[in-house]
Every structure is written in C-alpha cells, then in structure tokens.
Write a structure and sequence with these properties.
The complex is a heterotrimer of chains A (569), B (218) and C (99). Chain A is mainly alpha-helical and 569 residues long. Chain A has helices at residues 31-35, 40-68, 79-114, 123-145, 159-162, 167-194, 207-238, 252-286, 293-306, 322-350, 359-382, 384-390, 394-424, 430-456, 471-501; strands spanning 8-13, 550-552, 562-565. The chains are: A mainly alpha (569), B mainly alpha (218), C mainly alpha (99).
Chain lengths: 569, 218, 99
C-alpha cells in the first residue's frame, strides 16, 4: 500500500448479508447504465455476453466446416467459401473469443473482488477497453461483409498481400482488438500492485490472480508486436513497402517471425488464465490447501517468460535457418517443465482431499485429462523431426483444440459454473450441470481424437477435399461436433433457466476461502461494505470461516474488535 | 507528500476506489509506464526490421542514407531535446503552482513540436519531389541499389509512426494547457501533466535512436 | 512516496549534456571510424542520451524502482526478439535472400 508507516488496524468480523436488497445488478437501471458503466462487475458481464456471442458465431462456423467435411468432395459450400469460413472461425475464436474470454470476462469480475478492492485501478479505461473491443468486432464484421478473408487467421505473406479479399480491414480489426487487450492487461497489473487490501500480501493472492498477472505481462509485452505486424501488413497491401513481400524484395519468413513473436505468447494469454481457474477449483472442491502454492504461482510467470523464446516452432518448414530451428525446438521443451509442475501440484492437491464432484470440479478433472493430452502432443510436435512429418496436418488441429478448447474453454466453463452463483445470485441445476459436462467431455473427444489419427496418417489441415480413406473418421468427428453443439445448447438452457427460476444462491455455496465469497451473492455495488483485512491464505480450508470475514472496524469500542499491527507487504 | 497542505485546499480528484491521492498518483504513473512499454515494443518491431535489413544489405543502408539531410536531422534532434526540456520545466512549474509559467512552457513545447513537424514536412516534400515515395510508388533513379525503395519504406514507416506520435503529443499537451487554464491541475494534482510529459519524453527518446540509425550511416 | 520536484540546474544541465552529445554523435561521423565501431559508437551515445532523458527528465532516478524495472523489461524483450530472429536471418543456408 502507499502508506508505509506502521499503524494499528482495528478489525472485526463482518457478517455477510445473505439476502442483499441492494446489489450491483439493481444499483442502477436501464440499458445505458450497463453500456456506460464503470463498474468492473458489469463490464465483466458485458465482456462475458460478448465473448459468448462470438463463441456461438465461431462455433456455428465450425459446424459448417464439419458438415462440409462429411463427404470427400464438395458437400454444401464451394472451396473458396470453405477457405473463408475456416479463416473466420479461427480469427473470431482467437481474437474475439478466447483472448478476452477468461481475463476480460471472469478476470474483470473477480480480480478486484479477490483483492478486496472496490474496482480496478482505471475503471474508465476498463470501459474503454470493452468499447474498443466492440469497435474492433465491427471492423471484423465489415471485413466479412466486404468479401471476407481467406488467408487463415495467420495472414501469412505473400498470399495475404495478393489475395483479393478484404485483408486490410481485418488486420485493422486485429490492431484495434489488440488495444483492448493491452488496456485490460495494463489495468490488471496496476490493480494488483496498488489496490490490494491490508494484509493481502503477494503470498496470499489467489492463484487465479497470479495467472492473470502473468497473462497481463504477456499482453503488455507481446501485443504491441502484433500491432506493428498488422500495421506493416496493411502498409504492404496499401503502399507495397516490400518488407514482407518477396516480389518487392521483402522476406515472407520475417513476417512469420513478427507474427509468431506475438501469437505464440498469445497462446499463453489464452491458456494461463485457465490454469488459474483450475487451481481455484481443485483446491476448493478438494477442501484442501493447494499443494505447492509458490510453485504454481511462479510457474505461471515462468511460462510467460519461456513463451517468448519458442515462437519459431511454428516455422520449422518455413525455410528459416537450420540453426534457429534446432534452437527453437530445444527451447520448446522447456515449456513442458512449468506446465508439468502445475499438473503435478494439482494432482497432489487432490491427494487425500475430500473431493466433492460438483459440476465445476468435473470440469477441472476434464481439464486435467484433456489438457494433458493436448500438452503431451505439444511436446511431440515440438520435436523437430516429428514436426516435419506432422506439420500442417490434422494432428496439429487436434493438438491445439485439445489445448485451447479442452484446456481454456473447459476451464472457463468450470469457472463459469463455480462463480455463477456469485455473479447472478442464482444456483444452477447440479444434475443437469453434471450431465452436460459429461456430454461435452465425451463429444469433445469424439470430435478431436479422430483428428490425431487422421493427422498422423497424413490428412492435411485446411483442405476442402480429402481422399476416401479418411471419410469414416471425418464423419465420426462431425457427429461428435454436432453432439458438442447439443451439449452447449443444454448448458444454455439450464443456465438461462437458473437465471429466472433458479433457487437463490447463498453467499458461499462451495465453502471456498478466497475473498470473493466473503460478500453477498450477488455482490453489492462496492463489492464489500467494509475494507477487508486478510489474515489467512486463500486456500486455508483448515481454518474457521469467520476468520476470513475480517474487515477494518470503524467503531473501536465494539467488544469483538481485535487489534493487529498493520504489516503492508 | 511534499505539498499536502496545498493539496487539501484544492478540489479533490480522488476517485472512490483509491485510499489516498498518493496511491492514485502512483497507480496512474505505473499505468503510464506500462503503456510506454507497449510503445517501446511497437516501435521496437520497426527497429527489428531495420536491424535485419541492415544486416542483410549494409551497402544499401550506406548508399541510401546519403540522400538524407544530416543538418535537418540534427536540427530536429536539437528541437526535440529543447521540447523535452520545456515540458520538464512545465511539470516543475505545475508542481510549484506557477500555473501561468507552466502554460507558457507547454505552449513553447507545442511550438517546438510544430517546428519539428514543419522541418519533417520539408524533408518529406524534398524526397517526394525526387520521386522517393514509400513502397511501389518509388521512382527515383539516383540510387544504384536495387532495393533502395525498401530502405525508404523503412525510413517512412519509422519517421511516419514517430511523426504521428509527435502530433498525438501536441494534442495531449494542448489538452493539458486547457486543463491548466481551467485550474484543474495544481501542485496537489498534476497526474495528467506528468503522464503527458512521460509520453513526450518517450517520443524524444525514440527520435534519439532514429537520428543516428537513419541519418548518420557512414 | 514523496513527489520529486526537479531543480532548475538539474534540468538545464541534462538538456545541455544532451545537446553536447548530439553534437558529438554528428561529429564522430566526420572522422571515419571503421565498421562496426561506428555503429557501436552511435548506439552508445544514443543509449547514454536516452538514459539521461529517462532518469532525469522522466524522473526514473527518483521514482519507484518498479517503474524502471518495467521500462527495462521492454528493452529486454526487444533484445530477445532481435537476437533470436537474427539466429534465423543471419544463418540461412542459401545466403542472402535476394530475389
């Protein structure tokens, strides 16, 4: 905290209002009070709504792709349309859904609450970040209307400088979306540094926040490179500046360096927040202190750092020098170390815990299973020789869907269920939650496991047609994707039902120990009616709940007041 | 806080989620520094392109740089250093509650920035006159090297992006002058002026690197 | 954290030093220093100038050290970007990519 002088804090336990009449949801009324709110909780919900919308759009495009792949020849769309659809699927899912998904939606909502702050450091910047995001989305929409993009989400030159599709407006959309991402990251870093409550030292920060911190660091350091890359690409198309275009003396491989210097760390922007959610879920539903707190916290930062050293493993067949291929392959294996540390610590946390298989915990277990497959196949394709064989095949497609969807999306669903009572004040139906989790888990594997097999047999990615031998596996995968769609519809139904008809949520339905559960559900406008004082760690399940409800006492005469020396960490 | 007594007399700018003015000030400044990091890295991308092309074609950079006017570049460097000084003096004046002096220093900064842009304009016009345009429109035949256009593409990208930042800086400083005239900044609250100053100094730092890298190749 | 107010002599002498260094960086081009030392000299002078601006104009010298760390991080990651990319561009089998 800013005040470094030692002073005595008077604290007492604050009871939680289980039936709050005044919450952030009814604090102000009307659509404008939402669109121009500076409340981090409402902005979090705005983001949540937006990313769910784009997940729906991207998912529909994916189902179109899968439907087209039912037959080896043309089924429903022509080849050019197919190229545009997979580009849009990738670009929407990455830039509009998965990058803002966990940090900007759940992170925005819970980061200030978890540190006992009233808001993020720059609330107006936070709102601006959402508006910039919407503005970027409109640009992307414009590019779709004016001819879409068929370059793949990676915009590789020289094709992206030659194709007749509207690459410029799409790259500008990406540029704008990058701004939004930077503002969120900037806000989170400053908030975590400056706005922690008394007693909330770095060692008492929930691991979700450590992961958001690491994510924000990557957002700050990597996104500007994306900005300059897409700017140069746009200039390449408008002026023909010849930095990336070989016909003008440029170097297309240099574009890939620029692009992946952002986009590989961006992979960790997508997955590291998911790690944070899993840490919360596993500890809470095992009723046990997290095993290896510092190992998990610091491994997030380690991943953030190592993530900047390995981008060239996307470029093993691009024509980069052999030396750099070898170095990149070598460095890539190091990513596995901090990731493995996390997995082992999660499993160790569950050991001898009293595991409660609630829906969020089921998602956490699904995450462990799916992400381990995604991660280990990542180690395989990080090996130079194997990569040359599997490069640009469905093996890669399956790998990153296991990481991004089996990892990030599954973790986000777990987090969504975990925090649903806190955000909405309503309980969802546990039975349907578990059933749906099962449907999604099984259909996800149905969709993407066959793709590993096809890839290893040589089915190239992004192909419109394929040889007949793959038809069975493609059809199996397509049926899986339809079931996956059904799973999400089931989820939408019971979550919406809970909004209107669901039973009222208590303040702490999961008996969690972190700070966001120590206020009413849904929270009041300022999160807490008092300034929280933190004496224990966020996973101290062995300590009585009331010791977590401490706050600065205004009235010192109160009998249950205890005095402690304020020790600002 | 050095000027606590002054601060309490003026209107409070403390937002509800901060504990005190110091925490708010430190937060804003940290936020600004983090933003500057993104600026450094964005320009950094161009520097990387520069380094790689210079490593590939040292002769190109030697030849093409002769077309650039060292005298104008050096003048612009001096102008920007002077503007950095005036904005630093402006911040000092605000901290001492000499608002009138601060406004004058900021006006001088805008004037110097304008001078920079005017000189840059004449440099660009001189190049355009010869047919030295960025990219494919390049028609100048005074240079032997087949990739001469690529050097000037990098030149235009770097100085162009820098020029845009100079203009943004001018707008920001102009905004600060309005704030100062309205009495919204003073010794107890000068965060926006401080952050604008940080931005302006960064624009100066980037030019400090652009000048030797583009003009002084021999 | 108290607010630092720079003294007039500090600001003026830093500006003076920057002007001298600007003159110096132009002047060294008049004597022909061989490659690659001319680049090294030019960059060294630029780094000294930038450091002076950052420390005394941008007040990093008096500021919270975290802000300096933040700023240096940007330089560190830029260096990583340059060095690793050069591992490719300087070591391509086919020599220079001339088209």
């Amino acid at each position: 905290m800013a005040d470094s002088s030692q002073k005595t804090l008077r604290i007492r336990e604050f009871p939680i209002d289980e039936n709050p009449g005044h919450t952030y949801l009814n604090h102000e009324k009307g659509i404008l009070s939402w669109l121009f709110t500076v409340d981090h909780k409402r902005i979090g919900l705005l983001y949540l709504g937006s990313v769910i919308l784009f997940f729906f759009v991207g998912g529909m495009l994916a189902l179109l792709l899968r439907t087209e792949l039912l037959t080896p020849a043309q089924s429903i769309v022509d080849a050019d349309t197919y190229n545009q659809i997979f580009t849009l699927h990738g670009a929407i899912m990455i830039f509009l859904f998965i990058i803002p998904s966990i940090p900007a939606a759940l992170g925005n909502f819970f980061l200030p609450m978890m540190i006992g702050a009233k808001d993020v450091a720059f609330p107006r910047l936070n709102l601006a970040s959402w508006w910039i995001y919407i503005f970027g989305a409109l640009f992307a929409l414009y590019s779709i209307i004016t001819g879409a993009v068929d370059t793949g989400w990676t915009f590789y030159t020289p094709y992206s400088t030659q194709t007749g599709t509207s690459v410029v407006s799409m790259t500008l959309a990406v540029f704008i979306l990058g701004f939004s991402s930077i503002l969120t990251g900037l806000n989170f870093i400053v908030t975590l540094h400056k706005l922690r409550s008394p007693g909330l030292s770095w060692s008492k920060m929930p691991l979700f926040l450590w992961s958001l911190y690491a994510t924000a660091v990557i957002q700050i350091l990597a996104t500007p490179i994306l900005a300059i890359t897409v700017l140069l690409l746009a200039m390449e198309r408008i002026l023909g500046i010849g930095i990336f275009d070989p016909s003008l003396g440029g170097d297309p491989v240099l574009f890939q360096h620029f692009f992946w210097f952002y986009s590989h760390p961006a992979v960790y922007i997508m997955i590291v927040p998911a790690f944070g959610i899993i840490s919360e879920l596993i500890s809470t539903y095992s009723r046990k202190t997290i095993f290896g707190y510092w190992a998990i916290a610091l491994s997030s930062l380690a991943i953030a750092f190592i993530g900047f050293l390995v981008w060239g493993h996307h470029m093993f067949v691009s024509g980069q020098s052999e030396l750099s291929s070898v170095v990149f392959s070598f460095l890539t294996f190091f990513v596995g170390v901090p990731t493995g540390i996390k997995i082992f610590n999660w499993v160790a946390t569950m050991y001898k815990g009293s595991i409660d298989l609630k829906t969020p915990m089921l998602y956490a277990l699904a995450f462990l299973f799916l992400f381990t497959i995604g991660g280990l196949t990542g180690i395989m394709i990080g090996a130079l020789s194997i990569n040359v064989h599997l490069h640009d095949t469905y093996y890669i497609v399956a790998h990153f869907h296991y990481v991004m969807m089996g990892g990030t999306v599954i973790a986000m669903l777990g987090g969504l269920h975990h925090w649903w009572p806190k955000m909405t004040g309503k309980m969802y139906n546990e039975f349907w939650g578990r059933i749906t989790c099962g449907v999604i888990f099984l259909s996800f594997n149905m969709t993407f496991l066959p793709q590993f097999i096809m890839g290893s047999q040589g089915m190239p990615r992004r192909y419109f047609n394929y040889v007949d031998q793959f038809q069975g596996l493609h059809q199996f995968s397509t049926i899986g994707s339809y079931l996956l769609g059904v799973g999400f519809v089931m989820m939408a139904v019971y979550l919406l039902w809970s909004l209107f008809k669901g039973p009222k949520a208590p303040s702490n339905p999961w008996k969690a120990r972190s700070l966001e559960w120590m206020t009413s559900s849904p929270p009041t406008h300022h999160n807490f009616e008092y300034t929280p004082v933190i004496l224990h760690g966020p996973y101290d399940h062995h300590k009585p709940m009331k010791e977590f409800r401490m706050g600065v006492a205004e009235e010192s005469e109160s009998p249950d007041v205890i005095e402690i020396d304020k020790d600002p960490a | 806080m050095a000027n606590q007594s002054v601060a309490t007399e003026k209107k409070s700018h403390l937002q509800h989620h901060f504990v005190d003015e110091d925490q708010q000030f430190e937060s804003s400044k940290m936020g600004m520094w983090i933003f500057l990091v993104t600026e450094v890295l964005m320009f950094g991308g161009l520097f990387v392109a520069y380094i790689i092309y210079r490593a590939w074609h040292p002769d190109l950079f030697y030849e093409a740089a002769q077309e650039l006017d060292v005298a104008l570049g050096a003048t612009n460097t001096v102008v920007l250093i002077a503007s950095s000084l005036t904005i630093a003096l402006a911040i000092r004046a605000v901290q001492l509650d000499k608002i009138k002096a601060a406004i004058n220093y900021m006006a001088a900064t805008i004037l110097l920035a304008g001078t920079f842009m005017v000189i840059k304009y004449f440099e660009y016009m001189d190049k355009f006159g010869k047919g030295i345009y960025p990219g494919e429109s390049y028609t100048y035949d005074g240079l032997e090297h087949e990739m001469a256009a690529n050097f000037f593409s990098i030149y235009y990208m770097m100085t162009g992006l820098h020029g845009i930042h100079v203009v943004i800086g001018m707008v920001l400083i102009g905004w600060m002058i309005i704030k100062a005239k309205k009495g919204l900044v003073h010794s107890g609250y000068y965060t926006p002026v401080e952050n604008t100053g940080l931005f302006w100094h960064l624009v100066d730092i980037i030019w400090i690197f652009l000048f030797p890298l583009l003009y002084l190749i021999d | 954290m108290s607010h630092h107010i720079s003294t007039l002599p500090t600001l003026l002498s830093v500006a003076g030093a920057l002007l001298v260094l600007t003159f110096l960086t132009v002047a060294v081009t008049w004597i022909n220093i061989p490659e690659p030392f001319n680049v090294i000299v030019a960059i060294t002078i630029a780094v000294v100038k930038a450091t002076a601006v950052a420390m005394f104009f941008m007040n990093l010298y008096w500021d919270s050290k975290f802000n300096s760390v933040v700023f240096l991080l940007s330089i560190l990651f830029l260096t990583i970007f340059v060095v690793i990319t050069l591992l490719d561009t300087l070591f391509r089998e086919g020599g220079l990519p001339v088209y």
